[in-house]
Every structure is written in structure tokens, then in C-alpha cells.
Amino acid sequence: MQHTLVYHHPTIAEISMAAFSENICKLKEHAPRASMLAVIKTNAYGHGVVPMGEAAVASGAERLGVTTVEEGVMLREHGLLVPIHILSSIVPEQAEVAITYDLTISVSSVTLAKRLSDEAIHQAKIAIVHLKVDTGLHRFGVEPKQITSFCKTTYHLPNLEWEGIYTHFSRADDGDWEQTEKEFALFQQTVIQLQQSGYHFPLQHAGGSSITLERKDMHLDMVRPGVALFGYTPDIRQEKKLSLKPVMTLKSRLLQVREIPPGTPVGYSGSYVSSSVEKIAVVPIGHGDGYKRALSNKGEMLVRGKRAKIIGTISLDQTLINVTDISDVKEGDEVVLLGEQGKERIGAREIAKWAGSNIDEILASLTERIPRKYIEN
Ligand SMILES: *Cc1c(COP(=O)(O)O)cnc(C)c1O
Q1: Residue 139 marked in a binding site
Q2: For the chain, N or C: smaller number of CB within 10 Å?
Q3: In this chain, where does the modification N6-(pyridoxal phosphate)lysine occur (predicted)?
Q4: pLDDT digits (tens, 9 = 90+) for 325-342
Q5: 312 lines ligand 1 (CB under 6 A)
Q6: Distance from the CA of 65 to the center of ligand 1, in angstroms?
Q7: 214 and 299: one domain?
Q8: Three-state DSSP class for 349?
Q9: Angstrom distance (rounded) from CA 176 to CA 174
Q10: Nearest CA to ligand 1 atom 3
Q11: How many structural domains comprise the chain?
């Protein structure tokens, strides 16, 4: 069930549309010769796929990228007309809906290529496809060694338009340029080899946020930033490349504040025990909302501009914090879990570190149950 804002659920994610738009503009300026495919997969990294898709296009993104057909369909049903790429693969049974909704499909399977061709003939349409090359991630993609024979079987299938060819690097986020350059070179050789055999792909693309930020020489025809749109760079070293603004602020309110004597176990299994008289508070968010259980006894939140530690084991719907050292804390006070309060700030990178996770997971895990409030400026 999704809470809506009218019910006053105290935990909400505020989404700054101004920050998002600014990030897109900065990234576009940073990649002036490439077009932009804004990657808004996984519910736009937790920000809401439809509003972020609309905003991305309004801010100049030429294309959108998702990973499920459902997200693609949702964007179309909300009137978005730009090319929408499905960046992972689909199963043949999804060919029909993908073509009905004019989604751009990534292809690395002969079975899928044939099914798309059959379905496109059936619908009297042209299916737009991009060939995915595996240059080292070893996830989806055709291996360069087999790609010519792959094209022999699939390139001339009727009603398919091979609009593009692309790869996705395995270690660009880590800054492993030796490996990334190897993968890039392999990609370029593959494209040339295919051209020489008469297989042409007008749009060539390779990089996500890391490449957009750090390697202009690898932008090719199009860049595919994801997490950077939402104000975060995949690695901390990239923060000085471009000043991006975090788009999401996650906040809640204290539901209860109380004092406990020394030696009081707190929460399930008593994984925290107070060492003196302590003041604790309940925040209505839990791992059922996607607020990681791994933050138990590790994470922090902001109350009255100060940091309060998470104590005890996070439950499905509630998290306890220690507010002993913060004066005047009252029931109903605002708590910031992600974002700024007073002079303090907690970013997704910091939360990821506490949880032993990464920024993508921290943002994308936040469930639909948390209402999103879109702030226009
Ligand atoms: C997720 C994804 C991206 C975006 O990655 P970021 O590191 O978030 O920029 C780009 N391309 C493909 C194929 C992806 O799956």
C-alpha cells in the first residue's frame, strides 16, 4: 500500500526538481557533443520514475533508460514520446508489449531478435534495437568473438532497425582505467570489425556517470548517466569534477521521546543496552521502508541540527535513536535521515558506508510506501 501525502505519514522523501534539472544541465554541458540518455531505472533510483522521466526530458535529456518493460510502459502511458531504452534484456514473451509501446530493446540473444522481428511484422511496425556487446562485465552482451556470426543471423531479420550498439564497463566506477581502456578498445575494434562486414550501427555508446564525468574521450555519440542525475557521483574522487546537488531529502518526525535508566535493553534482542540515563526517540521508518537493517547500531540521523546515533536493531517500521546529548528534543520534532538540517548534512554516500552498501542501493531501496513530495523550486 502506498501512503499518500494527505494522510500525513510523518516520513517523506522530498524531491528537489530544481536540483535534478540543474544536475542534468551541468552533465549536458560537461558532455557537449554527446546526446543524453537519462537512466531512471529502478524507480529513478527511488525518486519516482514518471516525475523524474518528465523532468529529465523537460531539462533536455534526449532519451530515457529503464530496466523493466513495466517502467517503460508507465512512462509511455504518461505521455512521454522520447526513445525509451530497456537497458537489461527482456524475455521473448515481452516482445509484443515492448513493440506496442515503441520501446528500444537491447538485444544479445538470437531467440529474442527473431521473436522481435516476428512480432514487429505481426504489428506492421519496425522494432528499434541496440546490440549489446560484452567487453568485460560478463553480464549481458554478445562476445566480440561471436559477434560477426551473431549479426549474420540477426542483422537482416525483417522489421528490425539496428539503431545502436553499446557496452557497459565493469570497472569504470573503481577508476581502473587500464581495464576500462582495454574494454573501450575492444568495443571500438568490434564496431570497426562489424562495419567492415557491412553491419552498421549509427549510435554508439559506452558510459554511465563515471565516464560522463571523467572520460570525455569515451563519450562517443551518447552518455548514459544514472546516479549522477540524482546528485551523487559513483566514487568520491569524482565529486570535484562537477558540483552536483543531491535531489532527495528523507525526513520524518519523532513519534516518542523518553528517558531510560542505565542498563535498559533497547529494541528486539536488546542489541543495545543503555550505559547511563539516556534519552531515546522513535522514528517511524524501518527496513520495511527500505531503510537498511544493516544501519542498526551504526547509522545516524539529524535532530535539531545535531547527529543522533541509531541504537538497537532497526525493525520493519521503526528505528530508535539516542538523543541524550541534544537539548530540548520534543515529540514531533523533525528528523532528517538524508539531507541537511542546520549546519549538518548526511549524504547517501555516508549512509552507504555505515550499511556496507553503495549509493544506488541506499536510494533505490526506499519503497513506494514513503510518499514522495515533489518540490518545484
Ligand atoms: C545503470 C546503468 C547506467 C547508469 O549507471 P550510473 O553508474 O548510475 O550512471 C548506464 N548504463 C547501463 C547499461 C546501466 O545499466
Answers
A1: yes
A2: N
A3: 41
A4: 999 999 999 999 999 999
A5: no
A6: 9
A7: no
A8: helix
A9: 5
A10: 208
A11: 2
